[in-house]
Amino acid sequence: MLFQNGVSLSKQAISKRLNECIPCLQELLKQAFSLIYVNALENHQSLLLNYFSDVKLLDVTTISLPNQVADEDMLSMHNWS
After folding, report:
1. Where in the chain are the domains?
2. Using CA atoms in the order 40, 44, 48, 54, what is the torsion angle rounded to 10 degrees?
3. pLDDT by residue (tens digit) across 23-72?
4. Which of 1, 35, 41, 59, CA to CA, is 20 to 30 A from 71?
5. What is the pLDDT of residues 8-20, one digit of tens each?
6. Are the C-beta atoms of residues 10 and 1 closer than 8 Å to each other?
7. Under a CB-based contact definition with an 8 Å cutoff, are residues 8 and 1 in contact?
């Protein structure tokens, strides 16, 4: 138990108050980072675009093969090494 200025607080009381503050702090940080990010994009977009002539997007789509086909492919790759 913590005693300060004549007030006693238990660990449970402190934990409860902190847990009640967490959603508010998360939202505050989320909005702060969002403002920083948007501000950086708006103010520095033209500077960034001066460095790049084009933007290429990569597709990370994967196609799962049936086990038998995948095993055969691994065997053929192993035979080449």
Report:
1. 2-80
2. 90
3. 999 999 999 988 888 877 777 777 767 777 777 778 877 777 677 665 66
4. 59
5. 878 888 888 888 8
6. yes
7. yes
